[in-house]
Structure formats: structure tokens, C-alpha cells
Specification:
single chain; alpha/beta; Rossmann fold; Dihydrodipicolinate Reductase, domain 2; 2 domains; binds 6-O-phosphono-beta-D-glucopyranose
Length: 488
């Protein structure tokens, strides 16, 4: 994982898709932030590539600087000089072999001009359909091997389903070996997501309770108050299952449910993640509820229905909400339901894992109604108010015996201040050759396998009002004796 000193290399970042939203909002701020904090060698350079020929180096630098000032107002005076020193642009036009040969020639020139070490990060910040032709184009122009190491970073979603993910794995393996492939899921770069492993495996207290012997259910929520924004062209073909569940929520699930790895290294950790995914039967349509937001209110402002958002087809049936019940059929978890839930335009933005523990088998005090004793909960808030709460019962002071539910509370911000940015962590890991926080080929396939039935027979989405917590039908996934979904 990311260390403080710059690694001993002077790499070139070649970003294909360099005029897109991801580059402007996330990658440029991450690259700039790493340089500004001296985590990247001062000599590294970035070559942006995209189809448009309307940019040259100078106009691309100006476009990037404007984006940085909007999204990363960090050391604002240093932004323009950094862009002029580090950024270059090369069009790949229609993506013909000649276009990629020109790109390869430009890579060599930028490396020579900046006296780089020949180590290369090829970053595909592209929609899924563009991965295969781009990988082929790059490789056939010889860019899959360079004078130093070459690592390829592929954004999510990796495929549209199990079959396309397998095809994409086969294609990328034709040109790159698995250790040089970095399938990115930015949730794994979040400090609090990595902390799930530390919380579990550095604290005997929790790990000794972490099984069907003590846990009654686990609930994983990734709620957003944002809508589809300007991404309808992508989102309407993806939907929440492909956009969020197959990757971010499934990663959280595997970190919560996996066994103790044999070592803290990339393969040992990923072996355990794959193992737990294989213990889950593919989700049946009756274990899922899909929803789509209608008009409503978010933070006091009226917002339109999904179908009225710009770029969304009028009759779209794309799901913007998914709730699922999963069963993990292994010794640790048999019988413990795992509930996953995600949606756009929900009550507020929060990513949270709630682990519910059993109630005491008998009430200790005769006068106490068993229902008055609440179960303990461990609430791990991964964003935005990062930290965790342990919910437990105390005696309410007084002559009568009554319990009261209280919380022990830890907040990252109070202890550590700002947390590192996920993309910075992950980019630095690529440069350092640490694949722990990236998704292995078999892992991405195991994850698609879980949702194969749902993708084949997607349930019709229920309406839910923007600003609510999703369709009422999601309650129907829970056992009648269980508490309703939490309202984080
Ligand atoms: C992305 C999805 O992967 O994650 C977006 O494509 C979503 O639809 C985003 O908004 C959420 O990420 P974060 O870090 O804001 O929780």
C-alpha cells in the first residue's frame, strides 16, 4: 500500500480516455496531489490520449488546469506550472493501427524529452465497450512491453456479465500477464475499506464473535443522494447492479465475510476473497428488489424522476436501486443473511456496514421484557463520517431495572484528520507494483457469477420517491422477525 517516499522510478502515465469525466474529476486531481505532496517522482509525466484532435499540448494543459482549479483547489498557484511541465496530449483518432503507432512514437518521445525510466502505466479511463479495441490497439503497436515495466489499469465495470468478463480476461491475457493487470475498484483504495481488514484481523475481540455463532445478520448499504448526473448515456445501459453491486458492494461483502488470509499479501488476501464468493449461490430474482427513482426532494430541493433526467430514454426500466438477500453457504456464515442495498437519490449519502449480534439467550433481570434488550450492533461507517460505533445496553439509573441503548464511538477525522484520497492510494500502488487492492481475474469472474441469474431475468423496478430510502418492497426481503432496514 501507499508509502510516503516516492518510489525509485520515473514513470510515464498514459491515460486513454484523457478528455473524460473520470480524468478531470478524479485522475488529474490524484496525479497532481501525489506530485504536490512529493509522493511521485518530480520527473514523471502524463500523456493523455483520446479520440478528439481538437487538443494540442497547450490547449490540453489549459483544459486540465481549469478542471484542477474546480475539483482540486490544492496549492492553486502550482497548478498551471505543473500542467505545463507534466501534461502532454496525443489524439488516437479513429483508433487505426497508424493512430496507435503514432501514440507509441509519442510515448518514446515524451520519455526521451523528460528522461524517464521507461516504466509505464497504461490507464484505460474508458467505457466498457472501448476496452477490447484499445487493449488490442495498444498491444499491436508494441505498447504492452516497454524498456522498463508496463502495467495496465482497467476501470470498472470489467465486462457486462460473466461471459463478457471472461472474454475480456482472455483478451487482456493475450498481451499482458496477470501481475501487470490492475483492475481498479476505487472502493478498495478508501482508507476505511482497508480498515475493515485491520478491524477484523487485528482485534481478537471482534474476530472471535465474527460468525454464525454470534452474528444474526449483516447489512451493507451504499446510499447516494446524487442522481444520474451527466452520465445517463453510460448509466442507463449499466444500472445499479452493474455500476455498484457487482463491484463496490461485492468487495465490501467479501472483506466482511472472508476467512483470515495466510499472509497480508496480494494473493493470500485475494484467494480468501474468491473463496468466499464461491460459497455464495447465484442470487435468484426473488432474493432481489429493484427500484427506480421518481421525482422527489433532496435537501429541500425538488429533483426530477430518473426518466426525466437529461439523456435517459422516456420509458427506461433501468434500476437505480437494488436490495438483495445473500446466503453464504460455509461453516462460518451458514444461516446468517447478508443484505446489500444501494441506490441513487436516497435519503442521504452514506456507506455503512451494520453487523447485528444475538440477543442474550435469557433475560438476566426477571422484570425485564426480553424485547427491551436490544441486540448489540457494530456500525462501520465508511463514508462520509468515517468511523465506527459499538451499540450496547446499559442499565438506566434508578430503582427499577430498565435498559438503555448507548454507543461507543470512534471517528477517523477526530483522531487522524483528513484521509488519503482513494485514487491517489491506488495510483501509487500501481507504481509500486502492489496489487493487493486490485481485483484479480478469477475474482471479477466469481463476482459476475453471483449476479448471472439476475442479469438474465432482471426484476421489474418498483418506484421510489427521490429522497426516500427506496421502494417499500425492499422490506419484503427481510425475515418478519427482523428489524427493518436501518436508516443511516
Ligand atoms: C462509481 C459509480 O463507481 O462510484 C458511480 O460509477 C457512483 O455511479 C460512485 O456515484 C460512488 O463512489 P463514491 O466514492 O462517491 O462512493
Amino acid at each position: 500500500m501507499a508509502g510516503p517516499a516516492p518510489p525509485p522510478t520515473r514513470p510515464l502515465f498514459v491515460v486513454v480516455g484523457a478528455t473524460g469525466d473520470l480524468m478531470r474529476r478524479m485522475l488529474l486531481p490524484a496525479l497532481y496531489g501525489l506530485s504536490a505532496d512529493d509522493h511521485l517522482p518530480a520527473e514523471s509525466a502524463v500523456l493523455g490520449a483520446a479520440r478528439t484532435s481538437s487538443f494540442d499540448d497547450a490547449s490540453y494543459q489549459a483544459w486540465a488546469a481549469a478542471g484542477l482549479k474546480e475539483f482540486s483547489p490544492y496549492h492553486p498557484d502550482a497548478i498551471d506550472p505543473w500542467c505545463r511541465k507534466v501534461l502532454h496530449y496525443q489524439s488516437i483518432g479513429e483508433g487505426t493501427p497508424a493512430d496507435y503507432q503514432n501514440l507509441a512514437a509519442r510515448v518514446a518521445k515524451v520519455e526521451a524529452d523528460h528522461q524517464l525510466s521507461g516504466d509505464r502505466v497504461l490507464y484505460l479511463a474508458l467505457p466498457y465497450e472501448a476496452f477490447a479495441p484499445t487493449i488490442k490497439g495498444l498491444a499491436e503497436a508494441g505498447l504492452n512491453h516497454g524498456p522498463g515495466w508496463t502495467r495496465i489499469v482497467i476501470e470498472k465495470p470489467f465486462g457486462r456479465d460473466l461471459e463478457t468478463a471472461r472474454d475480456l480476461n482472455a483478451l487482456v491475457h493475450t498481451y499482458f500477464d496477470e501481475p501487470s493487470i490492475y483492475r481498479i475498484d476505487h472502493y478498495l483504495g478508501k482508507e476505511t475499506v482497508q480498515n475493515l481488514l485491520v478491524l477484523r484481523f487485528a482485534n481478537v475481540l471482534f474476530e472471535s464473535l465474527w460468525s454464525r455463532d454470534r452474528v444474526t445478520k449483516v447489512e451493507i448499504t451504499v446510499a447516494e443522494d446524487l442522481g444520474v448526473e451527466a452520465r445517463a448515456a453510460y448509466y442507463d445501459r449499466a444500472g445499479a447492479l452493474r455500476d455498484m453491486v457487482q463491484n463496490h458492494l461485492t468487495q465490501l461483502l467479501s472483506l466482511i465475510a472472508m476467512e483470515v488470509p495466510a499472509a497480508f499479501d496480494a494473493d493470500a488476501i485475494r484467494n480468501e476473497k474468491v473463496k468466499v464468493l464461491h460459497s455464495i449461490a447465484p442470487v435468484e430474482p426473488e432474493q432481489a428488489v429493484f427500484g427506480q427513482y421518481t421525482a422527489g426532494w433532496i435537501a429541500g430541493a425538488a429533483v426530477p424522476a430518473y426518466r426525466s433526467e437529461s439523456g435517459v430514454p422516456a420509458g427506461s426500466t433501468t434500476e437505480t436501486f437494488v436490495a438483495l438477500r445473500l446466503k453464504i453457504e460455509n461453516w462460518r456464515w451458514q444461516g446468517v443473511p447478508f443484505y446489500l442495498r444501494t441506490g441513487k437519490r436516497l435519503g442521504n449519502r452514506v456507506t455503512q456496514v451494520v453487523v447485528n449480534f444475538q440477543r442474550p439467550p435469557v433475560t438476566f433481570f426477571r422484570d425485564l421484557d426480553p424485547d427491551e434488550v436490544h441486540s448489540n450492533e457494530l456500525v462501520m461507517t465508511l463514508q462520509p463520517d468515517e468511523g465506527f460505533d459499538l451499540v450496547f445496553e446499559v442499565k438506566a439509573p434508578g430503582q427499577t431495572v430498565a435498559t438503555k441503548t448507548e454507543r461507543m464511538r470512534f471517528r477517523y477525522a477526530e483522531q487522524f484528520g483528513n484521509l488519503p484520497d482513494a485514487y491517489q492510494t491506488l495510483l501509487l500502488d500501481v507504481v509500486e507494483g502492489d496489487a493487493t487492492l486490485f481485483v484479480r481475474a478469477d475474482e471479477v469472474e466469481a463476482s459476475w457469477r453471483l449476479y448471472a441469474k439476475l442479469l438474465a431475468q432482471p426484476p421489474a423496478p418498483h418506484d421510489y420517491a427521490a429522497g426516500s430510502w427506496g421502494p417499500d418492497a425492499a422490506q419484503g426481503l427481510l425475515h418478519p422477525d427482523e428489524e427493518p432496514w436501518s436508516r443511516p
